[in-house]
Amino acid sequence: MTAPAILPGRLPTRIKAAHGLGSVTLGIKESGLTTFFMIYYNQVLGFDPRLVSLVLIGAMFVDALVDPLIGRLSDATRSRLGRRLPWLYGAALPMAIAWALLWMSPDVARHSALGLFLNVVAVRVLVSACEIPSISLVAELTRDYDERTALMRFRFLFGWLGGLLAVALAYGYFLKSDDPATNGLLDPSGYAAFGLFGATLILVSTLGSALGQQRRILALPPPPAAAHHSKAMFADIALAFRNPAFVALVSGALFVTTGYATTIASTNYMMLYVWRMSDAQLAWYPAGLAIAVFGAFAAVGHAHRRFGKRDSAIAAALASGAIAFLPYAARNLGWWPELGSWTSMALLLSFQTTSLFGLIVATISTSSMVAEIVEAHEVDHGTRIEGVFFAGYLMVQKFGQALGIFLVGQLVAFVGLSDRLRPEDWPARDAAAMAWIFAGLMILIGIMATIGLRRYAIDRASHEARLAALASTLQPQGDSEGQRP
Question: Burial of 26 by CB count in 10 Å (0-12 exposed, 13-18 middle, 19+ buried)?
Fold first, then answer.
């Protein structure tokens, strides 16, 4: 039986913060591609929304198929900096350049769907080359059930803060129009600066995270040797996707991610065309997102200690879908304040914030559940493949993102937003149809997430029993603390 490279004791806060800093890149990428990419290339540059969604979906599928390979290669990497750090240092600069190009070359992108597709693929694969090795460290740095939750809390806090900062500056500065008659989201002039800012933050946060964890990672005992040949690599990937707990987790997490992607990808369309918000009102949206992020960061640890990770995720996903449904139903039934008013904005923001809080709690919970599968696999097979499990989970998340963006692209085309339209020129009946369809989707997605997650059987007690079994296996080697001798 091989043992993981784990140092005993609670992790220092500085290590948790440095680890979390690595997810800023993911937050920026998600906020840009999910919140602004579609409306930029559709309503600003004139692409058909179905083509934009296909570019995003195609790039996600390429990225998703590459993810398990990145995870397995990361597991097999051997260097004086360990298994994960070389990936972070190597991908940081190319990743920042690819991100900046995505927003700085509209003339090229306007005439080349293939060029746009390749640029998005480069962004996504390079982000994965950092995110997968980085998140795989969760299972290496600690085996403790609650400490892993703490690592994920910091990881998601920094990830959403990075995305939140990008969104707040986009609405409040980069994409804010000086002309009251022009909506800044439909003005191409601010997108290049938005891209440059994101690229700088990507570079600084990735390198900062790697440097902040380097001493701790180098102090870990070396991991056992891993086979590098392709047959072993694909065998490990196939083995991960035959694990019952992993299959249950990802089948539910797929729809948690779909709910989040559908919500974020549709936000600008909904706020402009369904709720008739002004630039000044749009600037308040990041405040609601910030409340949801900090609220989830504070609540998820307590929820896991009281209800467990699985039940917390289920309750949060169901509540999020139900709360997302309510304002759209009230709007269409005539029970809502005047559209475009500040009262309407404040009420909608309250519902959005609460729904997003639920989605964030569900996402943190499902992500944290991956780490316990690592020990379940170790007990059954005697090997640890953290990178493969986390890569597989991220791959399924990307399928969920693709599904959410596909749904939004089809919805936008179905209700007649294929052409460049001002909100005041759009028929009210189409806005009502869009509202009903979106509301129904959120309910359905919450139910589907619950069906999948209910089959996940690992809880705190079973995880601790596995740790005890692993520790007893190692004791004859003179290692009562469960470390490698």
Answer: buried
Model confidence over 293-316: pLDDT tens digits? 889 888 988 999 899 999 999 999
C-alpha Rg value of the chain to the nearest Å: 22
Q: Which residues contact 219 (CB under 8 A, 6 or more apart)?
A: 7
Residues 449 and 314: their CA atoms lie apart, in Å, by 7
Burial class of 127 by CB neighbour count within 10 A (0 to 12, 13 to 18, 19+): buried
Q: What does the alpha-carbon distance between residue 42 and residue 419 come to, in Å, rounded to a whole number?
A: 8
Taking CA atoms, 408 is separated from 84, 159, 402, 435, 439, in Å, by 35, 23, 10, 12, 12
CB 134 within 8 A of CB 23: yes
- Range 193-207 average pLDDT: 93
d(CA 97, CA 145): 38
Looking at the chain, the number of H-run helices and the number of E-run strands are 18, 0
Cβ–Cβ < 8 Å for 186, 419: no
The alpha carbon of residue 92 and the mean position of all alpha carbons in its chain are separated, in whole angstroms, by 18
- Take residue 197 and report the two structure tokens written for it: 């800012």
State the pTM of this model.
0.72
Contacts of 460 (CB under 8 A, 6+ apart): 145, 308
One-letter amino acid of 358 = G
Residue 263 CB contacts under 8 Å (≥ 6 apart), including other chains: 324, 355, 356, 359, 404, 442
Contacts (Cβ under 8 Å, ≥6 apart) of 38: 49, 52, 53, 56, 265, 405, 408, 409, 412
Is 196 exposed, middle or buried, given 0-12, 13-18 or 19+ CB atoms closer than 10 A?
A: middle
Q: How many residues does the chain have?
A: 485
- At 227, list the tokens: 């086979």
